[in-house]
């Protein structure tokens, strides 16, 4: 009798279970084994009929394969595969559940907006006053501010840079065309007196965590914008600001993360010296680019071109 059930009770991975059972597997079961090992994420998300079709075997064979490696059936096989991908698969499972329920486009719009409202409300209610104070003071006192966020968080980092530029000197965005390696190249320049703002939401990217760790170890003050105390970036952060980012159709809701960023930049503006003068100087600088401004470049062109157009019309008569 096989000892696989005892091994399973000890928490051995699917890969090890398949490896131990492989010598006794039939050719069709070996096909299943090869597919599951090569595509564990896909196998974890497929219904049994889709998996069987992908491998080219029958549904009965798929079920028998699960039993051949010591599991009760396909549902248990899928559950075991999911264990390694809980965080990544959560959005897929939520989307699957939502798509199974008939609804209108308007209902999806309304549900998404309501979810954003709930996330922002939860983010506001969970604010830690001490953490907010520390984050703002760290940014205003920093010699240099580095902003790290990759993937979807790269856009958030760019918006944070836009908000901080007016009030903090030497703001450097690390989410550029150079990718994460650009941040790694700047690590040797970082030290005490600098601040790294690391933005990391599910699905967490290792690049951001590693960069935060490197900065932390160099004595850089790390401010983390993330979703909760379970985030992998916490061990390398001096200050954490949390945003709830639940989303029914994706890994994150960016609205609450953006709201937190806007709140942070608003607090920095409020605490910054001469913030009114700074805002006035910035407004003065951008006036030529504003469409409805009297100093708009378009308005200047209209005035310059006016007489020429009039002369042209006169000659044509």
Average predicted confidence as pLDDT: 83
Distance between the termini: 106 Å
Instruction: Report the biggest beta sheet as strand number plus sense, adding barrel if it closes.
Output: 5 strands, parallel
User: How many DSSP helices?
Assistant: 16
What structural class do the secondary elements suggest?
alpha/beta
Rg estimate, integer Å: 28 Å
Strand order of the largest sheet: 2-1-3-4-5
Helix/strand order: HHHHHHHHHHEHEHEHEEHHH
Number of strands: 5
Describe the structure.
It is a single chain. The protein is of the alpha/beta class. Helix content is 59%, strand content 8%. The chain has helices spanning 4-9, 14-21, 27-38, 40-45, 48-55, 59-68, 74-82, 86-99, 105-125, 129-141, 152-164, 180-186, 206-217, 254-271, 275-286, 297-315, and strands at 144-148, 171-173, 194-199, 221-226, 239-242.
List descriptors:
five-stranded parallel beta sheet; alpha/beta; disordered N terminus; 8% strand; 317 residues; single chain; 59% helix
